[in-house]
Amino acid sequence: MSEYDVPKVWEWNKDEQNQFGNQPVAGSRFEQTLPVGEAPLQVYSLGTPNGQKVAIMLEELKDAGAQCADYDLYLINIGEGDQFGSDFVAINPNSKIPAMMDYSLDKPLRVFESVNILLYLAEKYGQFMPDDLAEKTELMNWLFWQTGAAPYVGGGFGHFYHYAPTKQEYPINRFTMETKRQLDLLDRHLADKDYINGDTYSIADMAIWPWYGRLIQGKLYGNAAEFLKADDYTHLKEWADRIGERPAVKRALDLDYKAIK
């Protein structure tokens, strides 16, 4: 492969297509009417790691006996560009899943970005988030770590190792190095605790598990777990298996998403 000759000014080649429909502009691309069910919470999502976070939380709320936490779950097929429709963009102007509408309020409220949805639901229903300032701060440390770190795993390692049309040594090595550093970080953190925030299961686990737990279990990016020597991260693997055995987590992975059209 020849070296890329970087132009002085980048220009978008509109004839060049990619599997995710990415473009250098935001906003809706077509008119869309999303269905709205009877439940107070309307969730528009997909079973990606970010989508799984919210599905896990909603199923955990069921098991915790949370009142009025019923939801309808609709499929946003990012391969077909559903995320660029007018109704979805009105909920999430960033055109990323998951997105949610809460119709239980006098004025319906939109909530987007997966970790923000977790925080919103935890505060609304008083579940899976501590009240103690120190414990809550530690939980926030790890939530914000996840939002900053996971793009290196998904958009970096996952893309170049598994999705990119050509295999390139430099970006694969670059993002493999960073992904393994993050796995080692989590493995060290979990050496003396059962959950991310200590002894108590929380939304920090729900945010981190779909990315790092699923990766270490060999559920992301083809043969990535073998490539990354996942078995070396024993504490992380034990945590991943512990979370994966929770009934709500199992249900969340098997949910049926309703069609939007």
Structure description:
There is one protein chain. With 261 residues, the protein is an alpha+beta fold. It has a domain at 133-249: Glutathione S-transferase Yfyf (Class Pi), Chain A, domain 2, CATH 1.20.1050.10. Helices cover 46% and strands 7% of the residues. The protein has 9 helices and 4 strands, in the order βαβαββααααααα. The chain has a 4-stranded mixed beta sheet, with helices on one face. α1 links the parallel β1 and β2. The longest helix is centred in the middle third of the chain and has 31 residues, at 133-163.
* Second rung of CATH, namely the architecture of the domain at 133-249: Up-down Bundle
Q: Give the termini separation.
A: 42 Å
Anisotropy-based shape: globular
Content-based structural category? alpha+beta
Rg on CA atoms, Å: 19 Å
CATH class category of the domain at 133-249: Mainly Alpha
Report the helical percentage. Answer: 40-55%
Average pLDDT works out at: 96
Q: Give the number of DSSP strands.
A: 4
Largest sheet: 4 strands, mixed
The total count of helices amounts to: 9
β-strand amount: 5-15%
Across the major sheet, the strand order is 2-1-3-4
> Might you state the CATH topology name of the domain at 133-249?
Glutathione S-transferase Yfyf (Class Pi), Chain A, domain 2
Order of helices and strands: EHEHEEHHHHHHH
Q: Residue ranges: pLDDT <50 for 5 or more in a row?
A: none
